[in-house]
Amino acid sequence: MDTRTLSVHTGDRCVVELTSEVADFCAGRGDGLCHVFAPHATAGLALMETGSGSEGDLVAALERLLPRDDRYRHRHGSVGHGADHLLPALVAPFLVLAVRGGELVLGTWQSVILVDTNPDNPRREVLLSFLGENAAGSPAR
């Protein structure tokens, strides 16, 4: 199994597209699975259409579901930070994606995104792991 770590600077963005980085990691690897993991208590990963306003719609939906106020028992950090810790229960911290012939298999409008509502930590890591056969048909290492 081969693994790579992406360093992601979210800044003030709640949605960061990672499709090209994941596709680059999978390029030339043959058939298999790409596991994408965000090892953070306040971030998740998803597949969705980007570039059409859906990112803003997702952020608005999360704000409705997880308002940033003082209702949460988890209270350290900025106001509403407790909501950030609920995010991974709604947006899983991992994805498993098919790879065919070294190419990431996605639907026409699907993009890989990191979702991070936590403004207290603008630096994230995302781990990419490939499990499968290399282009020559032997197990990838």
Q: Your description of this structure?
A:
This protein has a single domain (2-132), classed as Jelly Rolls (Sandwich). Helix content is 20%, strand content 34%. It has four helices and eight strands; from the N terminus they run ββαββαααββββ. The protein has helices spanning 19-26, 54-65, 81-84, 87-90; strands at 2-9, 15-17, 32-37, 43-48, 94-100, 103-104, 111-116, 123-132. Strands 1-8-3-5-6 form a five-stranded antiparallel β-sheet, with helices on one face. A hairpin with a 2-residue loop joins β5 and β6 (103-104).
Describe what is shown at a glance.
It is built from four helices and eight strands, in the order ββαββαααββββ.
Query: Could you please say which CATH topology applies here?
Result: Jelly Rolls
Distance between the termini: 5 Å
**Treating each run of at least 4 consecutive H or I residues as one helix, how many helices?**
4
The main pleated sheet reads as: 5 strands, antiparallel
CATH second-level architecture = Sandwich
Outline the low-pLDDT stretches: none
Bulk shape:
elongated
Helix content range of the residues, please? 10-25%
Rounded mean pLDDT is: 92
Based on secondary structure, the structural category is alpha+beta
